Amino acid sequence: MDFDFSDDQKFLKTEARKFLDARSPTSVARGVLDDPERSYDADLWKAIAAQGWLGTTIPEEYGGLGLGGVELCAIAEELGRALAPVPFSSTVYFVVEALLVAGSNEQKQRWLPKIAVGQTIGCFASSERPGPLSESQVTARVDGGRVSGAKAPVTDGDIADLAVVLAREAGQISLFLVELGGEGVRRETLQTLDPTRGVARLVFDGAPAERLGGAGEGLALAQAVLDRAAILLAFEQVGGSDRALEMARDYALQRFAFGRPIGSYQAIKHKLADIYIKNELARSNAYYGAWALASGAAELPLAAAAARVSATEAFWFAAKESLQTHGGMGYTWDVDCHLFYRRAQQLGLMAGGAKAWKERLVSQLERRNVA
Amino acid sequence: MDFNDTPEEAEYRARARDWLQKNVPKSPPHDTETPTGMAAAKAWQRKKAEAGYAAITWPSEWGGGGGAPWQAVIFGEEEAAFETPGNPFVIGLGMCVPTVMTAGNDVDKTRFVRPAVLGEEIWCQLFSEPGGGSDVAAARTRAVRDGDDWVINGQKVWTSGAHYSDFGLLLVRTDPDAPKHKGLTMFWLDMKSPGIDIRPIHQMSGASNFNEVYFNDVRVKDSQRVGALNDGWRVSLVTLMNERLAVGGLGGPSWRAIMRLAQDVATLAGPAAKDAGLREKIADWYVQAEGLKYTRYRTQTALSRGQTPGPESSIGKVVSASLMQDMANTALELEDQFGIISDPKDAPMAGVFQSALLSAPGMRIAGGTDEIMRNIIAERVLGLPQDVRLDKDVPFKDVPTGR
């Protein structure tokens, strides 16, 4: 039994925290929030690339560090804690994982080295209309190697260079790689709940598209990518939940009402204890996900669903109750609570919402016939 | 991140499993309220002690196994897979005897530790009183000095196993003029002492695991004191700390059981197993139950690495008790009118959910209520201040009491 980060992984995590404390205080996320022209922090992105984090799980032959999924989970937790306003999740959890899961050697050779150095930003374009991802969602079409149709919302779609797109070709749903700087691509920046992250509608009109993975395997591959991304996002969510709890704790200690710190009232103490409980459950489920991710276990889909449900619930609860603990100040623009409140929804929805993941969890249990 | 045993752990596990296979009695009686059940429990405890599998982490000179915490965890996992006799030793070995070992004198340690490990003597814990459940330090049972003796009068309550215990660990008020926490003293006593009256409490579940214990001029020697005079609160903290570690999983039906039930019943909209509302709940319960399981693995990892487990181990009871209650209620809703029936002969799934419904309230209260557990997490894990205490610095006899 060794159900924790190793000493090396803890060292990596500590170094990541130090780096992000220095380079990504919440003022950096606020800089993006307050500037309608920017949807990410380019300097922070370059600095993160220089750390080598983008290539954490990219094999050395493709210019990465060749580390395991658990190392990436450690970094993800710290990025979530820092609310880092960078296209890390889209690029690394979705596009790198998609290339590793489905890419040909030639495709990996072409894209992974550029991603590893921060030269190529990626995004994952699956959704077309409200509701969970399903076969009927997919109407974008590929004909003669060119894709047409619209995808929204695509997180980081406004700044990405490369999109992984779910589309139909000859009646079959497949994944495709589309270069967004080329012809036949129009991007519309969308206004979203969390302006510290960029989101766009991608409108394709005959953009060159290259199939990623087998024909007709699109939904299965997309789900495999979503499973992996869900686990990594769970660590971001756990990082954010922890930070939201710390903020609430610190505020409850310094804010006095009726002659004593509000943190001495059971209404506040029990609320914060409940946040702690949910966070620890989410962390434990995320650890199980990390194990499944790194070991390629058959339990991966179930572990991903559990990590996703638990972490989404925990971050939402921590963010909303941390804000509530801050009282009126928590509702102001200048106090950071709303950044976490916004990010909780962004992370909780960008890989599909908890409701759909709960259904997926139970159908996995049925498939595994555990009852 | 690895669930697999290290080679050392795997070897220990294999040896433990092999030993259990050879030594666990066939279809043993469980009910320690019966003479045969108690005899089976004592025999099993002795067998484990002789093989080094009782009190695994305690030094072998005290009858323990002289092993490491991770060994105790692995043996516990392996033993749980077998049908073993009942265990009336949890309170003694989990709370009372560790307190004697920490705060008691050498004579008492020599006298009590080994017989407890061997299962020869059973202990109970006499802390709670009618006027102080969560507020243990509000104990009013009086001990008055009389020469070399102390004379005890008062009442304890919720005393598990008092009726079959040989010894008790007793918290009493020795100085009512001192503030509440400063006038308490701890003693051990023989539960057969004259003047002790033990009356069973009939629980709402129908069982009687607890007792009221009345003291009428019960005499104990000053040499039976555990720790210093008026230092009983500090001594009791040793016991209570051990209590939280001793309270483990709750048993009862799991999300698996309710998935099985859902295959057998229907809602008005179709099979219950396909009911979206139920499926969402099952997912919620699953992540709580599995989250707790993996939290235990994290604790076990800390033990394996020779580290002190983090505070995450404090969340177990507060999550699992409400989980059980919530799941039982939903299961009864699915059973609809049949949910009323608790007779195992007639109730769906042998009444496992009805039984859980009736025991869940006790789980939410015993060993620290949900509310006290949240206070503990808030204060000891998150570092929030204690509640304002009106009784802290006044003489105990002047503290207001209700009824």
Describe the model.
The complex is a heterodimer of chains A (371) and B (403). In chain A, 54% of the residues lie in helices and 15% in strands. With 371 residues, chain A is α+β, with helices and mostly antiparallel strands. Chain A folds into 3 domains: 7-116, Acyl-CoA dehydrogenase/oxidase, N-terminal domain (Butyryl-Coa Dehydrogenase, subunit A, domain 1, Orthogonal Bundle), CATH 1.10.540; 122-215, Butyryl-CoA Dehydrogenase, subunit A, domain 2, CATH 2.40.110.10; 219-367, Butyryl-CoA Dehydrogenase, subunit A, domain 3. In chain A, strands 1, 2, 3, 4, 5, 6 and 7 form a 7-stranded mixed beta sheet that branches. In chain A, strand 2 (141-143) and strand 3 form a beta hairpin. In chain A, helix 4 (69-82) crosses helix 7 (218-254), helix 8 (266-295) packs antiparallel against helix 9 (300-325) and helix 9 packs antiparallel against helix 12 (354-367). The mean pLDDT of chain A is 97. Chain B has 3 domains: 7-87; 123-235, Butyryl-CoA Dehydrogenase, subunit A, domain 2 (Beta Barrel); 248-365, Up-down Bundle (Butyryl-CoA Dehydrogenase, subunit A, domain 3). Chain B is globular. In chain B, the strands form 3 sheets. Chain B has a 4-stranded antiparallel beta sheet, with no helix packed on it. A 3-stranded mixed beta sheet of chain B has the order 1-4-5. In chain B, 42% of the residues lie in helices and 13% in strands. At the A-B interface, helix 7, strand 9, helix 8, helix 9 and helix 12 of A face helix 7, helix 8 and helix 11 of B.
Could you give the order of the helices and strands of chain B? HHHHHEEEEEEEHHEEHHHH
| Shape estimate of chain B | globular
- CATH class of the largest domain in chain A reads Mainly Alpha
Low-confidence stretches of chain A: none
Jot down its keywords:
heterodimer, A: 371 residues, Butyryl-CoA Dehydrogenase, subunit A, domain 2, Butyryl-CoA Dehydrogenase, subunit A, domain 3, 7-stranded mixed β-sheet, 12 helices, B: 403 residues, alpha+beta
